[in-house]
């Protein structure tokens, strides 16, 4: 899976994508991540600085991200993909009022696409014509408003990547492929905390796999 991220803050991704499972997935070439900064696509004569944002029509506080630099950045993705065969491309635009992202969506994405463009907004959002022109799907990661689409992009990358076979250490680690539990324990068997003993549930020490599975189901 190839992720193409449109963002004016690519550095925000650095530490997250470098570490742990996602870092390894990139090294192992299970996924690839490329950045396209709309600032690099601003067409303006030299010394005639044009910002990436502008005031909203109809008034109101905050600024709106201009359409042209984002569309040019997306065109750079198209150009790059043109030479490749068998590209199944999806464009996603982040918005708090979009369709809610979930595991089913992540799973479906790994089956349907080879390349995903993730457009991260900032400020008051992106000029609505970008969505109309690209017919991008508007996706929300939850019912709250963030300051930008960079965290949502990282969340999608993380959640979609762990659905790709070979990304997690063992395929069984995928939650849907086994009975999982949010209640998990590790050593010590008896945890002493402020003169009280906290024990691991007996069933987990029993070695009886059937009973353990039943306990997890509950
Ligand atoms: N005024 C806008 C909010 C803009 S928030 C509105 O009411 O829709 C700025 C940017 O952060 C958005 O363009 C989007 O890319 C991102 N964002 C904020 N909250 C988000 C959420 N819950 N899910 C996905 N993206 C979000």
TrEMBL record:
| Keyword Transferase in record | yes
Gene Ontology terms for molecular function = tRNA (guanine(37)-N1)-methyltransferase activity
State what protein this is by name. Answer: tRNA (guanine-N(1)-)-methyltransferase
What's this protein's family per the entry?
Answer: Belongs to the RNA methyltransferase TrmD family.
Keyword Cytoplasm listed: yes
Q: Which organism is it from?
A: Candidatus Nomurabacteria bacterium RIFCSPHIGHO2_12_FULL_37_29
Q: Highest lineage ranks of the organism? A: Bacteria, Candidatus Nomuraibacteriota
The chemistry this enzyme catalyses reads:
guanosine(37) in tRNA + S-adenosyl-L-methionine = N(1)-methylguanosine(37) in tRNA + S-adenosyl-L-homocysteine + H(+)
Q: Which residues form a coiled coil?
A: none
> Quaternary state and partners of this protein?
Homodimer.
Keyword tags:
Cytoplasm, Methyltransferase, S-adenosyl-L-methionine, Transferase, tRNA processing
Residue stretches making up the tRNA methyltransferase TRMD/TRM10-type domain: 1-218
What's its job?
Answer: Specifically methylates guanosine-37 in various tRNAs.
What Enzyme Commission number(s) appear in the record? 2.1.1.228
Q: Which gene encodes it?
A: trmD
């Amino acid at each position: 899976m190839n992720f193409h991220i449109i963002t004016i803050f690519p550095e925000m991704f650095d530490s997250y994508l470098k570490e742990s499972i996602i870092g390894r997935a990139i090294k192992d070439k299970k996924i690839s991540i490329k950045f396209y900064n709309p600032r690099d696509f601003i067409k303006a004569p030299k010394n005639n600085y044009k910002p990436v944002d502008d005031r909203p029509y109809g008034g109101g506080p905050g600024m709106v991200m201009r359409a042209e630099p984002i569309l040019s950045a997306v065109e750079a993705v198209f150009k790059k993909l043109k030479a490749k065969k068998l590209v199944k491309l999806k464009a996603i635009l982040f918005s708090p009022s979009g369709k809610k992202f979930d595991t089913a969506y992540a799973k479906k994405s790994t089956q349907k696409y080879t390349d995903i463009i993730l457009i991260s907004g900032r400020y008051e959002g992106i000029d609505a014509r970008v969505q109309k022109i690209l017919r991008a799907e508007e996706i929300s990661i939850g019912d709250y408003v963030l300051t930008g689409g960079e965290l949502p992009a990282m969340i999608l990358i993380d959640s979609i990547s762990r659905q790709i076979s070979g990304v997690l250490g063992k395929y069984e680690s995928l939650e849907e492929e086994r009975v999982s539990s949010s209640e998990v324990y590790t050593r010590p068997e008896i945890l002493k905390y402020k003169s009280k003993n906290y024990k691991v549930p007996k069933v987990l020490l029993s070695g009886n796999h059937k009973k353990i599975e039943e306990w997890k189901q509950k």
